[in-house]
Amino acid sequence: MKIKIIPSQLHNFTKAGLFVCIIALIVQFFPTESKFKFQFEVGKPWSYELITASFDFPIFKSDQQINKERNEILKDFTPYYQMDTSIYEIQIKKLFSDWQKKSGKLPISQNYIIRKFKSIYAAGIISVEEYNKLVEEGRKNISCILPNRFSYTIDIENMYTPKTAYEEITRDAPERLKSYDLNLYLIENLKFDSATTSLSKTDILKNLSLTSGMVQTGERIIDRGEIVTPAIFLELKSLKVEFEKRKESIQQSTIVVIGEIILIFGLISLFFLYIYLFRPRIFNRISDMLFISLLIVIIVGLTSITTRYTNSSYYIVPFAILPIIIRVFYDSRTALFAHIITMLIISFMVDNSFQFLILQIIIGMVAVSSLKDMTQRSQLAQTALYIFLSYVLMYLSFEFISEGDFQRVDWQPILYFGISSVFLLFAYVLIYIFEKTFNLISSVTLVELTNINSDLMMKFAELAPGTFQHTLQVSNLATEAAKKISANSLLVRTGALYHDIGKMRHPEYFVENQLGGNNPLSGMDFELAAGIVINHVADGIEIAKKSHLPEQIINFIATHHGKGKTKFFYNSFINAFPDKIPNFEAFTYPGPLPNNKETAILMMADAVEARSRSLTKYTEESIDEMVDNMINSQIAEGQFKDAPITFRDVETVKSVFKEKIKNIYHTRIVYPDLKNDNESKISVSNIV
Length: 688
Fold this sequence. Notes:
Elements: H1 7-29, E1 51-52, E2 57-60, H2 63-74, E3 80-83, H3 86-103, H4 110-123, H5 128-136, E4 141-145, E5 151-155, H6 162-171, H7 175-178, E6 190-192, H8 194-205, E7 211-215, E8 220-222, H9 230-245, H10 250-278, H11 280-283, H12 286-309, H13 321-329, H14 332-346, H15 353-370, H16 377-403, H17 412-423, H18 427-438, H19 443-449, H20 455-463, H21 465-484, H22 489-498, H23 526-546, H24 551-559, H25 567-576, H26 597-612, H27 620-636, H28 647-664, H29 676-687
Parallel strand pairs: 3-4
Antiparallel strand pairs: 1-8, 2-7, 3-6, 4-5
């Protein structure tokens, strides 16, 4: 049996796959190692929730306390030195041999030399560096290890350096002996034994306790608002050490991952549910869902990379770029909702999550509020400045509350706020890239498209001047109506300017471009004439695509007549051939129907403006009746069944159209003609 998947099912499968991919990617970005996510200092208030011990752990002593106790224990410690007893005999033999070679006989004071050398080498000769080191450390004696591993203690005062050994020999020596270089034969026989010394220290320090108590499971440590005392600081530091030291088992790691998946699943589900319930247009477009999801993943990924692989603060990440870009392409509520969901996810990856969340939610509000409509580049710079100022003010308020002392404020995060605010300026480049990649349209692009001095608009005004004037009037009507019902007025204005560009191809067939004379369509077959008029929609779409207009603007061209009929030719056919069944398709526009508020407004404005030009008289009653009849007939034909526009919106649009058309066609004062007699008198008086 072959399984057949219809397009709607494929669409749903794609969105489900996107949902799973987002969760999988974000889970990968979550930190894999356990980290203690609290920051604390002595004298500062605890800004987190209540902390209780989730496991037993010892309270580790402070480094200062450990060093103090360690120094006390090692105060009487004696370092170990190896004594080389063979050096004495070697140096004596060398001295006598050199003396005999030089003088031809042994020294007269041979016994004196042997006695002195023996006593000095027995006491030990140590290098000047080692001796000074022992003195600086306050040592009074050392442990001397003989070759047979027997050890004994030597008083430092009884030891010699090469210099003091020479002075000792020459003090009572004969004059002839003093003139001889005895110092050449006085070398160190005590060498520092680092291995034995280290082992001895380790053995002694085994009795040094690194802890000063225990914290039992469930024991209260600190609650929000309490000041971190030195004792509590030691408990928190000990908790941090034990928390990061504990090695999780495979079962514990699996539980952590499951918890992360549940958390992310819940938050992303809330976001998708919001889009489904309140923004169905976004939900039904895979490209829109992919775009917003990609933004969320990028921000989470940047935060993960910053915290894992750099020493910089995570505040360097331009978090506000998410609501800015979404606001430019969609709406404020969607931008703020996506920002809050993203920040909730990131809060589990950073320390001090409470302060982080408060700060980022406020920044998101500032970003959305300050960027209602981005129509100029300068607006992005202003928004970046507002965000930086908000960051600084909110951060300083937190610091003032927690520190209570201006001198203790940490100013470094302000630098990160400044860097992240500068990064926001790159949003302009990203907006352009995302527009081309995901077929989106921004306010900046719409403003550029409304420039009537562009090449396309200039050509339009030249080839079809009557139609061009018609589009200007339709644009004004539709823009005012869109403002009243909270539709995208800039999008409507732009779409209205381009909705009839198809008439550029054959402008002579349309009455607004004809300067009197015969209408070329009047002598044609009704179906053929209707086809020529209907083709201006397809021609407009073709011209728009060649001019690289966005899909959103092409949508206005395709839908501005919906599936309505060319009533002039259709009615003329019925009147001329009452007994003949017409080919309805030949007189009907191909559609599609308007699919949003903006295209629905344009359809109404286009019909009303065109009909207003054919009124025989312009009174309040005739204009009101004309507007009501045109729009009611469109409703009756089902032209707005695919557009999310309410009856209240339609009535508001009607009232706007009526008011605007009355202002356009208001009656003027009739200026009286001068009578001939009065005119001649004025002329004569002027001459005189």
